[in-house]
Amino acid sequence: MSESLRPLAKVAISLTVNGKLQTVHACPMERLLDVLRNELGLTGTKEGCGEGECGSCSVLLDGTLVNSCLIPVLQANGVSIVTIEGLASDGRLQVLQQSFLDCGGAQCGICTPGMILASVHLLNKKPQPTLENIREGLSGNLCRCTGYMQIFEAVAQAARQGAAT
Amino acid sequence: MKNTPIVGTSVPRMEGRDKVTGHSRYVDDMVLPGMLYGATVRSRIPRGKIRKITFAPAIDWNEFVIVSARDIPGKNCIALIEDDQPCLADGIVNHPEEPLLLLAHPDRHLLPKAVEAVSIEYDPLPAIFTMEESEAQSQIIWGADNIFKSYLIEKGDVDGVWQNADHIVEAEYTTGAQEQLYIENNGMIASFDQQQGLTVWGSLQCPYYVHKALMKLFNLPAGRVRVVQMETGGAFGGKEEYPSMIAAHAALLAMKSDKPVKIIYDRMEDMAATTKRHPSRTRHRTAVAKDGRILAGEIDFTIDGGAYKTLSPVVLSRGAIHAGGPYYWPSVRIRAKAVATNAPPHGAFRGFGAPQSLFALERHMDRIAQVVGLSPAEIRRRNFLKPGQTTTTGQTVNEAIDLGKLLDRALELSEYDSKKNKFAQKNQQGSRKKGVGIAAFLHGAGFTGSGERFLGSVVGVEACPNGSLRILVSSTEFGQGTNTALCQIAAEALSLRYEDVAIAQPDTHEVPNSGPTVASRTVMVVGKLVQSAALGIKNTLTASGLLSDPYTPEEFRAACRSYIAKHGKFRSLAQYEQPEGVFWDDEKYRGEAYAAFAWAVYVAEVTVDLTTYSVSIDDFVALQEIGRVLHPVLAKGQIIGGVAQGIGFALYEKVIWEQGCMQNGQMTNYIMPTSADVPPIRVYFEELGNVHGAFGAKGIGELPMDGPAPAIVNAVEDALGVPFHSIPLLPEDIFAALTDRETPETVSTSPRGNE
């Protein structure tokens, strides 16, 4: 391989993903997004822009909403990550997943995993959000299909059903 | 017996569960063993001859697969309407970002550096970038005259009217390019096998468009090319044509390397290189009577097609036919043309030419209202098409549509009159000016004119060995709800439950060609065929004595199983046949342009902040007649989503061009509406029904893209008293218009005066 193109050496990184401790070998500056998708096979986390604008790659990192395309995997050593695959349990949809389905919050589905994680994060902070809270809480996640209204409805419905608990 | 209706209810989205759990498989989620990654080396100039290509010595190029135009086995073109667009430029480039070479390597991280390490020397040729330059023909860059296509639509005696008109109202309106901005970038995987031929999996709208393009490029028979649609993360027209290009590129690399190859565009490449909405210019000259009645009009509609023909003739056609809107024109002449410039080809985007020509018309109606001295509502009311009257192409309105009533209801829902009065008073002071604006419009569903007849779409419904049903169509799901609506239609047609029907993944080896997934045709045209094919299954079962009415879903399944046990494979096909009495003249562009029109009146309420010059939308009423609503949640979602894209078209989304090249190909600097920007969008339906569509449905997908821009810009004029003729309308444009206006006023109040 050409020397000028050779990537850096890999290091071992340990992190908890959806409750399970994982050790991956990756280049330190590799994006958390790529490690989740390519090393761990968690392809529910999507790439939309690769520069932290669209929010499609949103995951929860120690409970904080982050764009996984902006996180070097080294920074994820020792943290706990929740991806869309970590929400449903025993085949049962999490309340927000069900409300997105009921209210038409998912159309093409590509922003949906990130949008649902942003909603989880919002309801954890504000279990009974106002419409303004919802608009603001989701403003880092772009959706081109829905025009957002039905996503707002989905979050409001989930809040009424106590999704945050 | 099943008593619960399915059509008209909001059943769960067919593939919804996979979408909310992250289990849906999009093309980038798919990995094949030994797969390489592909990248594209593109032109960096708008027009020129390629003199020399140099590969930087720092890289060991033996590690890379390199494909050029010489590696193409068949014809070097992306077959669509005309074969003028090369798959890889050969000796000459006609726009920035034109594909020149392809590279593949097992490590995708190496590709961007390798693409940078290919340097191309050109002998530049003079290039043109505007419609005006193209029309002036100082440089001929396409054909004999830079014109891809022109149409003339004529009705009545246009020339005899002007002398007797009370008013002649003239103006020019323009719209900018708009990026579809699906959140999933374009992508394809290709694999080639001597036995099976070529297979591609990808993010796409029209499997058989890709199939046709690959057959020609590789000189392969139909059976040796297979196209499979993966879950597709938004399209909006943006994945109608360009996927053929990417599939071709992945396939060329796969064939040369003998390995599967994946090409996934990054955002900047997707935005700069793939198609956008055609920029447009519309000139109106309208003869109007004292009472506001339109007597005649001349409409000159021009679109910028970019460097190759691609879909421009069809976009132009729809734009031209919609240019007269929902009004009665006793006489009209519409001249339309698509011209060439040295920009990447513009293409399909929701609305397909109609949002452009309808923006112009609906702004122009407000202008006419001012000249005549009527309100925007009244000028529209006096000119609405009525049943029995004819459209600009001479199509008689056969349905019982009452546009006056639709307008009244929209005005009432939006409290238009009281707001207009209240705002006029309040705007006297303060720096926040408010206004309301109306747009009335229509959108034709299905292919234009003879299009559906030429397509002759075929649909299949198959009974599976376990007795369940599977719909076989090449019509694709990319968020609109194709899967759900078609399954609803089949289940309802057969009195089955929604869960008794499934839909096959679009795969050209499995499904017949039900036509492209475009033109708001899927539910209306394909849905009707699904209904027929589904009834074909039932008829076969009853004719063979295996089933009799009434039956339970279980009895239906059992009958299917018995039939399959006896006869084997059990499929019912249905093919489109044009309804009798439908007439269309492709030469004169006259006749029944569309099997059905959806009709709408939208009302926008805006605030313009004179500190920041930004426009915010406070309320939006979207009222439409779309025939029967098959799925209320999906239908509402289509309208709201379309309105949001229309808001972007009007107020935010501006492509910055330099030498034919997009300069702001990032979500950071090309701004689409966020959750904080959209107003409350209030959606209302009127349901008249429609004889052509399944269970009375009409097309719905594109309609909501047409109305928001003119309604919003009309509202901005209402707020400020200043007309705007171009979109996108950014704060700096408003600032410039208001400052320009204030300058002469300042002069006129000086002691000397000037008026």
Describe the structure in brief.
The complex is a heterodimer of chains A (165) and B (755). Chain A is an alpha+beta fold.
Descriptive account of the structure:
With 165 residues, chain A is α+β, with helices and mostly antiparallel strands. Chain A has 5 helices and 5 strands, in the order ββαβββαααα. Chain A has 2 domains: 9-85, Roll (Ubiquitin-like (UB roll)); 95-160, [2Fe-2S]-binding domain (DNA polymerase, domain 1), CATH 1.10.150.120. Chain A is 30% helix and 15% strand. Chain B has 755 residues and is of the alpha+beta class. Chain B folds into 3 domains: 16-24 and 457-575, Aldehyde Oxidoreductase, domain 4, CATH 3.30.365; 31-125 and 181-273, 2-Layer Sandwich (Aldehyde Oxidoreductase, domain 4), CATH 3.30.365; 280-448 and 589-739, Aldehyde Oxidoreductase, domain 4, CATH 3.30.365. The longest helix of chain B has 22 residues, at 522-543. The relative contact order of chain B is 0.13. Residues 744-755 of chain B have low confidence and may be disordered. Chains A and B meet through helix 2, helix 3, helix 4 and helix 5 of A and helix 1 and helix 16 of B.
